[in-house]
Each structure stands twice: as structure tokens, then as C-alpha cells.
Amino acid sequence: MAAGVATWLPFARAAAVGWLPLAKAPMPGVPQERRRRTDEMLVVNVSGRRFMTWKDTLDRYPDTLLGSSEKEFFFSEDTQEYFFDRDAEMFRHILNFYRTGKLHYPRQECIAAFDEELAFFGVIPEIIGDCCMEEYRDRKKENAERLAEDTEAENSGDAPLPPNSTDRQRLWRAFENPHTSTVALVFYYVTGFFIAVSVIANVVETVPCQPPPGHKKALTCGEKFSLQFVCMDTACVLIFTFEYLLRLFAAPNRLHFARSVMSIIDVVAIMPFYIGLVMPKNEDVSGAFVTLRVFRVFRIFKFSRHSQGLRILGYTLKSCASELGFLLFSLTMAIIIFATVMYYAEKSTEDTNFISIPAAF
């Protein structure tokens, strides 16, 4: 009796203050069990983490492991549950697929490990939802490229070349693994030295220098010592060109090498020098190509050939391209909004520096 009064007391209080009218009709009865009697509850133990679901839920997909009779091989008579020594966190997404019919890709998980779990439970990745399919394919492609590069690096590692190897194979081994010979190691450090010299010279030539006697106008170091910088730049470009041609000659697949990112960086880094040689001295014509000299800064990316850490950084930036793009978009919107506010706030002020919205950037 006391339990019944306690159950209805909150409804009575709510009705007294006008929250809920009292029901005049009798309360409906307890709903009966809608599931069939043949349906049963199953317990799936995944590495110590128990999941409970209905048998009908798993039977929806008979072509998979959990939906077929093959799961009986994993049934434990002692615990009366199915045990799988797999990743419990990823299994949660697989079980949700049985429940909802939609498979989602967990972004925080490794793409290779997720594919292994799908293959074990017999779930094909083509049924991943549209909301996750694009990112899944991007991660899949990125992982395949990384594995291909790692395989190529292992093949060009410390393993000895066959006795009948050609000069091209030995030269490519020297480029990819300079520690295999003394000559390759010397060439490795020489090219690295010229990369550093080229980058430093590109910066120093823009620094203002003391003008020579009889000149009042301040000159940059590049204008004051133009001959020295031209000779230095020519020597660096010749070294880079020689290295690129040797790599192109020794590459196992020249077309694949020419289309690679590092090959494009090599070409872009030396392109301004050769364009400047064929361009006429007419300022009206050559002035449009002066901005090409900015491509010389791409020589700094040549350091990535000599640093595994820079290559890892490149992989990281590539995998986070969408997030970085959204961050850049957000910063751009914030700059435009605040610049607009500053412009209209200072518009009526005399001698203001915010004469336009771009000036308020």
C-alpha cells in the first residue's frame, strides 16, 4: 500500500500546482513482451568487455561471422558466452552496425587495425556510411602511399644487392641509403651543405648593407655583392641540377619519380635560375618573372630528403589538411569581422589609419 501511494504522490503534487492534470481514465496495463519466444539474449565477450544483444540482431547479416553458425566455434560452455580476443573499442562500432544497419569509421583509430577487425568479423568496408566514406578513403589512400614508401625504403636498405646488379641499381641504392658507401655518404653531406648555403644566401642577400663610398642610397647585400651571390647561386643550382639528373637516371620508374612531390620540389627550386638565363634584359618583359625568384625558398624543402622527422611532419600535415583548412577559414573570417568593426568604429575619427577594411587587417 505504501509503495503505491509513493508512486502516485509526485503526480498528485504536480496536478495540485497545475503542471499535470489528473488522468480520468484508468492507467494502461503493462505492455506485453513483443519479442518472439524463440529470440534470446546473447553475451559477446570481447577481450574481457561484455556486450549483450539479441540473437535476431546478429541474424540480420548471415554472411558475417556473428550472423552465421561459425560463431559457435567461439562459444564457451563454462561462461555461456561468446569470447573473441579482439579490440573491444572497435567492436563497439561493429556491433552498432548490426543494430542500426549503418557502419561508421572511428576517426581516432588506426585505419589498418580497423580493416583487420572488419575482415575478421566478415564485414565489408564498402558499406561504410556516406558520412564517413570520404574520410575512410582518404585515410586508406594515405596509408597505402606510406606503406609503399616504407616498402621501397626497406628494399633500398642495408640488404646487399645481387651480384648481377646494374650501375643504375647501385646508384639508386646510394641515393636512397647513403650509408652504404663512403662516396654516397660524402655526396649526401655535400648536397646538404649546398642546400643550407643556398637558403642562407637567399636570406642574407635581402639584408641592407652599408653603401659603398660615394653612394648615399642604402643597398642590399645582394646588390652590393651581386657577383659573389650570383657565383654562389650558380654553384648551388649546378649541384642541384646534377643531383636531380642523376636521380632521374637511376630511378627504377622514371615517370613515378618525376611525378613525386620531392621531384617537383627539386624542379621548382632550380627553375627561376634557368628562366632568368633565357629571359631578355628588357625590364618590361623580365619584370613579370621577378616574382619567380620566390620559388628559390622551396630549396628549404630539400632538407626533407635528409631528415626523417620532416617527412613525418609532412605526413602529419597531409592527414590534417581538412582541419588546418577549417582553422585557416575561421581565422580569415575573424580577421574580416574585426577589421570591419574597427573600420566603422574609427571611420569618423580624423587622421585614422583605418581608411578601409583591408587597411584594418
TrEMBL record:
Keywords: Ion channel, Ion transport, Membrane, Potassium, Potassium channel, Potassium transport, Signal, Transmembrane, Transmembrane helix, Transport, Voltage-gated channel. GO terms for molecular function: A-type (transient outward) potassium channel activity. InterPro entries: BTB/POZ_dom, Ion_trans_dom, K_chnl_volt-dep_Kv, K_chnl_volt-dep_Kv4, Shal-type_N, SKP1/BTB/POZ_sf, T1-type_BTB, VG_K_chnl. SUPFAM superfamilies: POZ domain, Voltage-gated potassium channels. GO terms for biological process: action potential; protein homooligomerization. Pfam families: BTB_2, Ion_trans, Shal-type. Residues 1-16 form the signal peptide. It is a multi-pass membrane protein. The chain crosses the membrane at residues 225-245, 257-279, 324-345. The keyword Iron-sulfur does not apply. Residues 40-139 form the BTB domain. It comes from the Eukaryota. It is found in: Membrane. GO terms for cellular component: dendritic spine; neuronal cell body; postsynaptic membrane; voltage-gated potassium channel complex. Residues 143-165 are annotated as: Disordered. The keyword S-adenosyl-L-methionine does not apply. This is BTB domain-containing protein. It comes from Scyliorhinus torazame.
